[in-house]
Amino acid sequence: MDWYLRRHDPSDLADDPRTGRPARAERVAESVIGDALERDPREEGFLTTTWTVPLLATYLSRRTGQTVSERTLRRRLHELRYRWKRPRYVYTGQELNLAQKKGRLFAD
After folding, report:
1. CA 48, CA 53: separation in Å to the nearest integer?
2. Each residue of 49-63: pLDDT tens digit?
């Protein structure tokens, strides 16, 4: 501003070149996310059988040392075409009173 007041040249008001907003963290690599999703969370010390976004964000922060927000992680998973589906539970054995629970009085 001082240069402009002395010389009255409009080019003195122009901003200096900038590199832009500094990155807070590098993008988490697709391979790191893919490797994590292929593993069982229990193998990584968590007490659950499925990944959630908060759990995955915690794991990635530990693994990479970069803090990843849940919102950013959701956006990144969407870009990578990952979809979340509720797990389906399957009985491993025949339950004794299953026919009765299904509405039949006698087992087939």
Report:
1. 13
2. 889 999 999 999 898
